[in-house]
Design brief:
The chain has 344 residues and is an all-alpha fold. It has 2 domains: 1-46; 51-330, no CATH class. It is built from 14 helices and no strands. The protein has helices at residues 2-8, 14-46, 48-63, 66-75, 80-102, 110-133, 139-146, 149-160, 167-184, 194-216, 223-245, 255-291, 294-305, 313-330. Helix 4 packs antiparallel against helix 12 (255-291), helix 5 packs antiparallel against helix 11 (223-245) and helix 8 packs across helix 10 (194-216). It is globular.
Length: 344
């Protein structure tokens, strides 16, 4: 293209020639760059395992940023119920827009409505206790303690539903208990605030029950539709809680507060949800659960580098033991169970 322009403009000035050359180079570069990006994305999508793994990693990391938004909003003077109301309220609006775009019906049966109500109440309890625990103990420690929920799920399934207790389950329980003890006893000889520990363990327990309800009472609908109701319940629940306790809801008062409120609604709530659906679909529930170990790791790093939380040997070993217990619980090489497929 450039050579033809030069031949046609033999009498062109040096400036014109330079201009033609730059234009030709720029057009070629932009086209090549776009082609390379499209080729890269198509190649990633064509390899379902790579795409699913990438989605699982991003879902875990995004969800691990919960403390970033929560603690920043606490610094702005917002209450726990107000922070969660903003998080769930904005996320509910986003999910509603997604459902409208997908033209998905919101109709549910009486049975489904009952199950969704139970899930909503469980998620309210889990979220409220987790976010409240951030005020008592380090966010990284709280997020790691929350990750005991897979072990709690295995124990409840064994006790209530007579699932076989395997050696790996026992090993995971022992490792997680030792890890919790190490987290509780700090390197300086003191202990964590017991209120914070109890709150986050309640959060883990209610989330474990949430998972069991989903497992034992399967819902034939997309994850977006499920979360439309669950997150809607959560937003409503936070408003009711604020009214009952006499603490009026606070909306973000400045650009910084709105940024972190939107962050909580978009990144750990909506994006993490969408990415986890694809991760479970392409690499399976087991691999997704193992990749989920990046959640507390992300929270720990945020706590250290953003909020300057202390980090000692006991914490390091405790976190490693709990994450090892989760990997042991999730890993099952002989399993042939397929991952749940999203109804999209």
């Amino acid at each position: 293209m450039a050579s033809l322009r030069f031949q046609e403009g033999v009498n062109a000035t040096m400036y014109q020639r330079f201009h033609y050359f730059c234009a030709a180079f720029q057009n070629h570069y932009i086209f090549t760059q776009q082609f390379d990006i499209l080729y890269f994305m198509n190649n990633i999508k064509s390899n379902k395992k790579v795409f699913g793994t990438l989605c699982g990693i991003l879902a875990a990391v995004f969800y691990g940023t919960n403390p970033l938004g929560a603690l920043k909003l606490y610094e702005q003077g917002m209450t726990t119920s107000s922070v969660l109301f903003c998080r769930f309220g904005i996320a509910w609006i986003i999910i509603t827009m997604i459902l409208v775009f997908r033209k998905e019906s919101l109709k549910v049966t009486k049975r489904e409505f009952g199950i969704l109500t139970a899930l909503g109440l469980l998620f309210i309890a889990s979220s409220m206790t987790l976010y409240s625990s951030f005020k008592y103990i380090a966010a990284g420690v709280a997020s790691t303690l929350l990750f005991t929920y897979p072990i709690m799920t295995a124990v409840i399934m064994a006790v209530l539903f007579r699932e076989k207790v395997t050696l790996k389950t026992v090993a995971a329980i022992v490792l997680s208990l030792v890890g919790v003890v190490l987290l509780y006893w700090s390197d300086s000889g003191g202990t964590l605030n017991p209120t914070g520990v109890i709150l986050v363990l309640i959060s883990a327990l209610t989330y474990a029950i949430y998972i069991i309800v989903v497992n034992r009472c399967p819902l034939q609908m997309s994850s977006f539709k499920i979360n439309f109701y669950v997150i809607g319940y959560c937003a409503l629940g936070m408003a009711v809680f604020a009214w009952v306790t006499g603490n009026p809801l606070q909306l973000p008062q400045n650009a910084t507060s709105w940024f972190y409120a939107l962050w909580l609604a978009i990144v750990p709530a909506t994006l993490s949800l969408v990415l986890m659906v694809y991760a479970s679909k392409y690499v399976g529930a087991t691999s997704t659960a193992i990749l989920g170990a990046l959640e507390p790791l992300t929270a720990v790093l945020i706590g250290i580098f953003v909020f300057h939380e202390s980090f000692g040997l006991n914490l390091a070993i405790g976190i490693a033991l709990i994450l090892s217990a989760v990997v042991i619980t999730a890993y099952s090489p002989k399993s042939t169970t397929k991952a749940p497929v999203d109804k999209s």
